[in-house]
Amino acid sequence: MISAILLLPVVAFLIAAPLTAVLSRLGRRLGTLDSPGAAGHDKVLREVPNIGGISIVAATLLPVAGGLLLLTAAPDSIVERLPALEGYRHRVEAAIGPAWGLVACTLAIHLLGVWDDRRSLGPLMKLLVQAALAGVVAGLLDTRMLTMLDEWGVAGNLLSLALTVVWIVAVTNAINFLDNMDGLAGGIAAIAAAALLAATLLAEQWFVAAVLACLLGGLLGFLVFNVPPARIFMGDGGSLPVGFLLATLALRTTYVDAADPEFALGGAWYGVFMPLLVLAIPLYDLVAVSVIRLREGHMPWVGDQRHLSHRLLLRGMTPWRAVLAIWALAAVLAVSGIVLGSLRPWQAVLVGGQALAALGVLAMLERFTESGTARDRP
User: Measured between alpha carbons, how far is residue 254 from residues 48, 146, 262, 338 in Å?
Assistant: First the structure.
């Protein structure tokens, strides 16, 4: 089963890479270039198409939808070809409905982003749609965090729903905020997808692993044309669905099983913090930039050049080196997160301390970098 899932990134890559190349040329002909965004957004525009998100979403959802169609129409033939699924058949059948719901929600937020790339919808409208789709995931698709709160009755259930919506909206916007330099958001998302993929394979969560594998391949195919100097941007049509998928799939992953001493990811309760390590960099950037903007009297969604990547440019790094540095830091934190639940308490404390120290260094850079203006997507 693992070998079959590990073929999916190749399939998705082979969809995304040529499609991204076509979109790069088509975007120039049609004039679907980098757009200024909402009013007040401080952004340096470049004559680069911003429709690359179409290739990421297509490379992710087409294989997933194809697999779901086969599982729906001919489940017996799929099990015959993949005998390892027989023991998980009931879980696979139960996941088909929510899986179609996830595909629909991802497509909806992709269309929202594509429309916003062409005609700015404004931050409030985007936030409301994101919250509504997150509510669908939490309520109708029964994908929630901290389900143990249900023991508190209706109040606990509502709190779980609210926290889930906040998580999905936060991660969605964190990836969107990080899309401010060539290759940055795509690379960070690929690292997160790879880490979550490793966790789901170890935990034998085949459906979640399959979607993550397709997402990883789609991101890698897109990155071929997005690393500095970028020939195409993902735009909101890419960053919003990528963040949405990462947030939702992170919720659908089981990180701890105290009842099973053989569970690959461990049984320690603090294993549930793995997503925070995997997504630490985009979440840090979201929080840091929002705090800076609020402190200066601006709303968090009013864009500027105060992101972590821009701060590194002001410290003298080249754009490519800044991207590589952030990728490397994200990878270190993500790899640490995979094994978190299997560590002894003192080892987990060390991993947490390492993460806090790394983010502390970034905070100092935010604090002590001299004010100035860095170019957006240099």
Answer: 40, 12, 14, 12
Q: Tell me which residue has tokens 């936060």.
A: 170
Element (H, E) at 69: helix 53-73
The per-residue pLDDT for range 334-347, each reduced to its tens digit, is 988 888 888 888 88
> CA torsion 364→370→376→378, rounded to 10°?
-100
Q: Identify the helix (H) or strand (E) that includes residue 190.
A: helix 184-202
| Residue 299 CB coordination number (10 Å) | 11
Question: Under a CB-based contact definition with an 8 Å cutoff, are residues 8 and 214 in contact?
Answer: yes
Q: What is the pLDDT of residues 264-286, one digit of tens each?
A: 787 788 888 899 999 999 998 88
| 188 in a structural domain | yes
- Residue positions counted in the chain: 378
Q: Residue 33 pairs with which residues in a beta bridge?
A: 49
Q: In this structure, what token pair is assigned to residue 34?
A: 């980098």
Other C-beta atoms closer than 10 Å to the C-beta of 282 total: 29
Q: How far is Cα 318 from Cα 325, in angstroms, rounded to an integer? A: 10
Nearest Cα to 242, choosing from 208, 193, 200?
193
pTM of the prediction?
0.89
In angstroms, rounded to a whole number, what is the distance separating the alpha carbons of residues 280 and 308?
Answer: 13
Using the predicted structure, report yes or no on whether residue 200 has a pLDDT greater than 80. Answer: yes
Count of C-beta atoms within a 10 Å radius of residue 296: 10
Helix (H, G, I), strand (E, B) or coil at 47: coil
Kindly state whether residue 355 falls inside one of the protein's structural domains: no
Residue 51 and residue 117 in contact, taking contact as beta carbons nearer than 8 Å: yes
Domain that holds residue 31: 2-262
Sign of CA dihedral 215, 302, 36, 329: negative
Asked if the structure places residue 90 within a domain, the reply is yes
**C-alpha to C-alpha distances, 162 to 17, 99, 102, 219, nearest whole angstrom:** 38, 21, 18, 30
Tell me how many domains the chain contains.
1
- Whether 145 is in a domain gets the answer yes
At position 96, the amino acid (one-letter code) is I
**Calpha distance 181→170 (Å, rounded):** 20
Classify residue 371 as left (phi > 0), alpha (psi -120 to 50) or beta: beta
Tell the residue number behind the tokens 């994908």, with chain if given.
143
